[in-house]
Amino acid sequence: MCLSVLKIRAILAAWVVVALAAMAGARGAGVTWEQIELGNIFDAGQPVRLAFQADAEAIEWVVYDFWHSEVARGRTPIDGGRGEIQPDVSGAGYYLLHATPVKDGKPLADAYTSFAIVRPHVSPDPANSRFGVMTHFAQGMNPKMLPAFKRIGIQSIRDEHYWAQVERTKGVYEFSDRSNSYMQACREAGIDPLIAMTFGNKHYDHAEGPTTPQGYAGYGRYGQAILQQYGDQIRWVEIWNEYNGTWCPPAARNDRPKYYTEMLKVAYEHIKSVRPDVQVLGGAAVLIPLPYFEGIFQRGGLDYMDGVVIHPYRSKPEGVDQEIQELKALIRKYNNGQDKPIWVTETGRHTKDEYGWEAGRKMYEKGRAEGARYLARMYTLLLKEDVARIYWYLASDHANFVSMGLLRHHQKEESGMGEYAVAPAYVAYANLIHQLDGATFVRREAERPYTRMHVYLFRRGEHEIRVCWATQPAQIRITADQPITLINLMGGETTLAPEGGQITIDLGEDAIYLIGTIAGIEEVDTGVRVIAASRDDYSKTQGQNGWSYGYFIDGDSTFHLMQQVETMWGYKWGGPAKYLSISDTQVHPDRISGKDAMPALRWTSPVNGHLTIQGHIHRGDRGDGVIAVLLVDGREIFSQTVGGSQPQRVELDLPVQVKEGSTIDLVVKPGKSIDFDATEFELRMIQQAGK
């Protein structure tokens, strides 16, 4: 299992999600969903057919689209305990079906399932397709799901053949039926496997990983055994997984770059000696940890990798492109000015709140929807940076990673929605692949000061595709002399005809695709500007974008600046105490000489007038909470204890008067204890015209 620091954090809240999933299963206890198409995934133009069993006389049902709008309803009679719902829905998209069995004229427990209508996609260049997905076939996932990925253009999976299972007896290499069956399934489906060489083996050094020449050699021979077993089916191998994170042998933890580089070199030489054509991917990093990478590069590690691996998990996609640019610059620094391919072998989005309810108990999937929105934006930014390949984590819900799957769990009872029932992220992925497969990034468009809008132009031959969204509500104005096609996040199409040569489109967090020739595109001034946003504007430079990163000592009004601190996860702002820190999403207080050391995020205003501070502050239920304070020019305008006895999210919407040079500080003070005081935050400064 591939864990990251963000995934570990997600485990702490997994019981909430599992409980909600169990509730969904209980609601559907009277209906057993069967499937005519795996996952209830239908091609455009194919009739939707949803089979079921139920001890009832009929099922009354309603179909909602991704945005919770009703698109169809009906009543299906049941004959002999079986029935088939055939909703009159034809447009590409993701759909949630709410079913209510009726027996003796009375409604029984509600049940839900999902279905999708997608455009099947054949990649124009399958051997070089950038689109993959992480599976856990080595942990028992069923390769039965592979055709669902192939039909939308996913050309590669990432999985493992664990060293400890392959070499149970020292020097003897055996591959289980599980390994052989999923590799054969990949071959039959026309899907290429990327194999991560994981993890340790008790016959060498330590069960958690090698740290000696003998152990490295054993690890290299294990790689050779994989290649011998599966031959030319394997084109790429990945050396380890998240070495800077969870999966690092104890002896290496004080100098991970040193030990990783030693292991990488030996493994590379063993693999190339038998298969020089195989690409060896190195780095094995969760997030984009520049200090860790530089430690490897300084030791010559770039000479022993054909591609650099990252797992860029983050709360929001925006900003990942800048981090990748920094990694590219670091690669060139140690590679004679030359680039090396960057592989994103994991990225994904875990959400804690899988389900919600609207009036009338209409269920909607808030967490799943966030994952779909995240996928389209993250992939667009990664493709903008020309990464070699991208693997979504995860193929289907698994273990503690509920809601990360493109498909739901393979067991019907896990969600109550049916085996591998499709999730919204699958449909968002299908649509993105269909629009951008084979396309090349050209430029970002429609930027203006303080923009929170994203418009990226891609081109495939003479075909222009623009991917557009905004992290705050925005509008674009398009100049065109012919209609253009707007394709929404879920693949639905609308033709837009220009009026007077122009088209105006509202943008939000759902990415849209604009297809057609456009003469000009610009952001419309709506009179509302987000002149500062703590996450979007986060920087490793003090004062950039108006933000400064510092701390106060209790009893002293002096604002002390923090310094950039290296960690195995990357850089963060840190103070003179161990836990005193600020990142783009979190702050953590500490104590110095018995006094509270309070992290302070400071913004300096470049404008005069009225502003609104919007955003949130969030703490979990561990520890005794923190006190969040907002200051304007040193004057307190807000103070509240957050978290402690239960998770708490405080929403901010505070009007303030500022002048040019005014400072706004978010200060976080610890309670009696500093344990578990990591505090998530986001701040935005909103200015409206005429105020």
Could you describe the 3D structure shown?
The protein is α+β, with helices and mostly antiparallel strands and 691 residues long. Helices cover 20% and strands 36% of the residues. Helix 8 packs parallel to helix 9 (320-334) and helix 10 packs parallel to helix 12. The longest helix has 19 residues, at 256-274. The protein has twelve helices and 43 strands. The strands form eight sheets. An eight-stranded parallel β-barrel has the order 10-11-12-13-14-15-16-19, surrounded by five helices. Strands 29, 32, 33, 34, 35, 38, 41 and 43 form an eight-stranded antiparallel beta sheet that branches. Strand 33 and strand 34 (581-582) form a beta hairpin.
Annotation keywords:
691 residues; alpha+beta; 8-stranded parallel barrel; 8-stranded antiparallel beta sheet; 12 helices; globular; disordered N terminus
pLDDT under 50 segments (min length 5)? 1-29
Report the radius of gyration as a whole number of Å. 26 Å
Tell how many strands the DSSP assignment holds.
43
Beta-strand share of residues: 35-45%
